[in-house]
Specification:
Number of strands: 3
Number of helices: 3
Structural class: alpha+beta
Order of helices and strands: HEHHEE
Radius of gyration: 13 Å
CATH architecture: Orthogonal Bundle
Distance between the termini: 25 Å
Strand content: 25-35%
Strand order of the largest sheet: 1-3-2
Shape: globular
CATH class: Mainly Alpha
């Protein structure tokens, strides 16, 4: 059975506990992770988002969300 993007994100959250946009893109070619997270929240999943600050390869500050499944 082929999984859709939402199912892949949910499986990742259950297996690894969290997911970031970069992981979603690199692992599953998902470019709109926030949309998939919103769909999962609408279905009743308790997903927490946390803003993470880091530096990119140009040493510039970047901020992104890290999503965690609270079961």
């Amino acid at each position: 059975m082929k999984l859709n993007q939402k199912q892949k994100v949910l499986r990742h959250l259950k297996n690894y506990g969290s997911i970031t946009p970069l992981e979603a893109f690199n692992d599953y070619a998902i470019m709109r992770l926030t949309s998939r997270i919103c769909e999962l929240k609408d279905e009743g999943y308790n997903i927490k988002s946390e803003l993470i600050s880091s530096k990119n390869r140009f040493d510039e500050k970047v901020t992104f969300s890290k999503y965690t499944l609270n079961e």
